[in-house]
Amino acid sequence: MTEFPNIVVVLVEPENPGNVGFAARVLANFGVDKLKIVGCDPREDYQAQIFSVHAHTILDSAQIVPDLETALEDTDVAWGATARAGGNHSVTRALVPLQKLPDPTAIEGRIALVFGRESKGLTNEEIVLCDLVFTIPTSEEYPSMNLSHAVSVVLYHLFSQYATKKGREPNETRSATREERAQVMVFLDEVIDNLSIKDFRKPIAKQIFRNILGRSYITGREITTLTGIARKLNDLVKMCDESED
């Protein structure tokens, strides 16, 4: 039994097959047995095979998908790793430090840990697909990490903080699904669209709410309540618009 049965590592268009092999080995080291690869299939490459050592099962069973959106279809939460920060003025890059990632063993749904290309990481469009984006603390002089090293650091952190020899008590609550969080945003997006704020600020406001939802652990019961409130807010805003007309 693996320590993290609900985690799947997603490698987006890895450029070095050797890194894929090393990453498979790291997964085995730290209790993760699910791997997805976006792009070309590197599993039969000699370097991938030789560097995976005794983790051939993880490498050979890796799922190959055409894009990140497909990779995330059967997951509930996506956490994306990036070395790029946009500062306080970039709400689309509201980063969480690695140390602040939630406890994956306390989340009932499937979690995708998403890592980008060796040369340029994740694109802005791919980052938007992630519920939260986190960064690994490194020297400012050389912040970019090798892909397999980044996977190793992240999984070591999660393993050392949350893995346990004893079985955990079943969690009575379940986490909100990706679809449930998306439904909340349907109503909140409509609320924002109908507010009397400048048009260029509306996408920013929407992204801020997505950042908040992505960084939060929300239970199924909480998301149901939040959806109901968002729906009533939306109805209220529409009523106000109609009365003004």
Q: Could you please describe the fold and organization of this structure?
A:
This protein has 245 residues and is of the alpha/beta class. The chain folds into two domains: 7-162, Alpha/beta knot (3-Layer(aba) Sandwich); 178-244. The protein contains nine helices and seven strands. A seven-stranded parallel β-sheet has the order 3-2-1-6-4-7-5. Helix 1 links the parallel strand 1 (7-12) and strand 2 (35-38). It is elongated and about 70 Å long. The N and C termini lie far apart (62 Å). Residues 86-91 have low confidence and may be disordered.
Topology:
Blueprint: E1 7-12, H1 17-29, E2 35-38, H2 46-51, H3 56-60, E3 63-65, H4 68-71, E4 77-81, E5 95-97, E6 111-115, H5 124-128, E7 132-135, H6 147-162, H7 178-194, H8 202-215, H9 220-244
Parallel strand pairs: 1-2, 1-6, 2-3, 4-6, 4-7, 5-7
Helix pairs in contact: 1-6, 7-8, 7-9
Keywords, separated by commas or semicolons:
single chain; 245 residues; alpha/beta; Alpha/beta knot; 7-stranded parallel beta sheet; 9 helices; 7 strands; elongated
Helix content: 40-55%
| CATH superfamily grouping of the largest domain | SPOUT methyltransferase, trefoil knot domain
CATH-defined fold name of the largest domain? Alpha/beta knot
Strand content: 5-15%
Which structural class fits the helix and strand makeup? alpha/beta
Taking strands numbered 1, 2, ... along the chain, how are they ordered across the largest sheet? 3-2-1-6-4-7-5
Mean pLDDT: 86
